[in-house]
Write a structure and sequence with these properties.
alpha+beta
Length: 617
């Protein structure tokens, strides 16, 4: 007697587009001799499978257990429907709709299989700087809209050659339905300015000769130079106006990373992960790395190559500074013509390519403490993967703060965190912020009903929200910090939250930053805080730890003796001016900031009297 046929409709949500999920489903279904189809839509992946009941059950079990490595399955919904007699399985065209929230994969580092082909002289993609497959390559930075198909990406202008199309159409191939699939015949190309017949070799030579090169990467331009060359690093600092803030470096492999920094097992795994962040690592003494790479800092920010272009440029043993290609406090440059305009005078040469970057995405920065990964800057490799929320929320945009700005677009139980935008201090960053917000609302098809902003009346993001026309909810800065940690860890009950920070506008109009709040998501009670002291000069005090030291001394009733480092050789008139400012509260506001207390301690210990970047002291 024949076995009864069963047909099951499945809806798979999560990061299931752009990660080889449809080809994986196709292979799974055909090997189980099931009929039906699979496709992308604006919610994720839809599947119908038909065949013997045991085979259908086995298919669903395998789907949950062994999905592609770059995918993240959040949930699978299933229902049985009447059989249609299907015996073959196919990938169908994507369904487009005005609603639906399909998750988008972060950009993925080059996989080992593609690297092997890249370095194989007999492979047709030997030395091709844009090699990729369903397991690796650009995603978030090239996607314009979902569903994730080539016409909805910046790969649209590149028509696949016959060989690439054959791979794309072959269910047995690793590049089956790989949307950015390309080769040297049909895909993006690298060129250099000044022109060179071999841009890769010429760029390596320029860096070795001490020049600074602007390199167009995955999410924007880097400014690159030899990290062992004191003159090159010094020139980069001078041209970029970056006095002390550390530069990140890129090395070819773990062996080179270990030669310049202490790397434990957890840090090695993070350096080699598919996210490939910058990892902060203890610097080894007596290496060839210029002290100007990270002046006065015991750590180095190190990353491994994450694109094939990087793999071709940086040889084992090389250490290149790879810092964001931008002017001070401006967003990272992503466009070729924009690079000539905004990076003129910074770079001696340019390495360009003709694949457009739709979304700027700076490198992520991470450190490991006691085996736990802590993000310092969450961007490339992580964004825009959502933070799962512990309860349902209406469509809402949280516009973020000012320093290291990001935003969050939330709906249902997903909080879609943006990439790092930058410090919201100028028009250029605000324009980038607005473009990113519009991209997220289009990409995830979420139209915010309201906007949450910081309480600070002068933040650009808050002013932008006030002019948007939607209802605005103002949130105290440190309440937002505590609520964020609660959401990250799925906490729903009230907490005693400690928010130790540099600056945050308080409900009393003063500057908070050393707070103990009894809080839930709806509100908070300020239970305790550091004793307030004067913030002389307002925001200017952030750049002058010596002023904060003098303020704390005065608050404690301790005289400003000349043998104290923050007093030192300051002329009497400067000290008298600061006294008058504090006594009469001229351009001075009270603060409970823990960050400013750290600044004061640094100045009193003789470490830093001035600061050239945030938290330096």
């Amino acid at each position: 007697m024949p076995t009864p046929s069963l047909r099951r409709r499945l809806r798979v949500s999560g990061i299931v587009q752009g990660v080889g999920f449809r080809p994986y489903v196709y292979g799974l279904a055909t090997s189980a001799r099931l009929g039906g189809f699979v496709g992308n839509d604006t919610d994720g992946v839809f599947i119908e499978v038909e065949g013997e009941a045991a085979a259908v059950d086995g298919f669903v079990s395998d789907l949950e257990r062994s999905a592609p490595p770059a995918s993240r399955v959040q949930r699978i919904e299933a229902e049985d429907i009447p059989p249609l007699g299907a015996s073959s399985f196919r990938i169908v065209a994507s369904h487009h709709a005005r609603t639906g929230t399909a998750l988008v994969s972060p950009d993925l580092r080059t996989c080992d299989e593609c690297l092997a082909e890249l370095h194989d002289p007999d492979d047709r993609r030997h030395d091709y700087p844009f090699i990729n497959c369903t397991n690796c390559g650009p995603r978030f930075t090239i996607i314009e809209q979902t569903p994730y198909d080539r016409p909805e990406t910046t790969m649209r202008p590149f028509r696949m050659c016959e060989a690439c199309q054959a791979e794309y159409d072959d269910p047995a191939d690793r590049r089956f339905h790989a949307q950015p699939n390309a080769c040297a015949v049909c895909g993006p190309k690298v060129r250099s300015v000044p022109e060179a017949t071999d841009p890769i070799r010429q760029t390596r030579q320029r860096v070795a000769d001490g020049e600074i090169v602007a390199v167009k990467g995955l999410g924007g331009f880097h400014l690159a130079c030899d990290a062992t060359s004191e003159p090159a690093v010094s020139a980069l600092r001078e041209r970029k106006g970056r006095v002390d803030k550390p530069f990140a470096v890129m090395v070819a492999d773990l062996a080179t990373a270990r030669s310049i920094a202490e790397v434990d097992g957890d840090e090695a795994r993070l350096l080699s992960s598919k996210e490939r962040p910058i990892v902060l690592l203890p610097r080894r003494p007596n290496t060839d790395i210029s002290e100007l790479v990270a002046p006065g800092n015991g750590n180095l920010g190190i990353m491994l190559p994450y694109t094939p272009l990087h793999d071709l440029l940086i040889a084992p043993g090389d250490v290149w500074v790879m810092t964001s290609g931008n002017r001070a406090e401006e967003p990272i440059v992503i466009d070729n013509e924009e690079a000539f305009e905004r990076l003129e005078g910074f770079a001696d040469a340019f390495v360009l390519h003709d694949r457009d970057i739709h979304v700027p995405c700076d490198d992520s920065v991470v450190r490991v403490l006691d085996g736990v990964e802590y993000p310092v800057r969450r961007s490339r490799g992580y964004a825009p993967f959502p933070v799962p929320l512990p309860f349902e929320v209406p469509p809402i945009l949280a516009a973020g703060g000012e320093l290291k700005a990001t935003f969050c677009l939330a709906a249902g139980r997903d909080g879609f965190m943006s990439q790092h935008i930058g410090d919201m201090k100028n028009l250029e960053t605000l324009v980038t912020f607005e473009h990113a917000v519009n991209h997220f609302t289009d990409l995830f098809r979420i139209e915010p009903e309201m906007i949450a902003t910081d309480l600070h009346p002068r933040y650009l993001s808050a002013n932008w929200a006030e002019g948007d026309g939607r209802p605005v909810v103002k949130v105290q800065h440190h309440h937002a910090h505590i609520a964020s940690v609660m959401a990250e860890h799925g906490v729903v009950d009230p907490v005693i939250g400690f928010a130790f920070d540099g600056t945050g506008y308080g409900t009393d109009g003063t500057i908070w930053g050393g707070e103990v709040l009894v809080a839930d998501y709806d509100g908070f009670e300020r239970a305790a805080h550091l004793a307030p002291v004067a913030l002389p000069g307002g925001d200017a005090a952030v750049r002058h730890p010596d002023r904060m030291a003098l303020s704390h001394l005065r608050s404690a009733g301790i005289p400003w003796e000349r043998d104290l480092p923050p007093v030192g050789d300051k002329i009497e008139s400067v000290l008298e001016t600061l006294e008058v400012m504090m006594d009469r509260r001229i351009n001075t506001i009270p603060t409970t900031s823990m960050g400013r207390l750290f600044d004061a301690a640094s100045a009193l210990a003789g470490v830093r009297q001035t600061a050239t970047y945030e938290a330096q002291a």
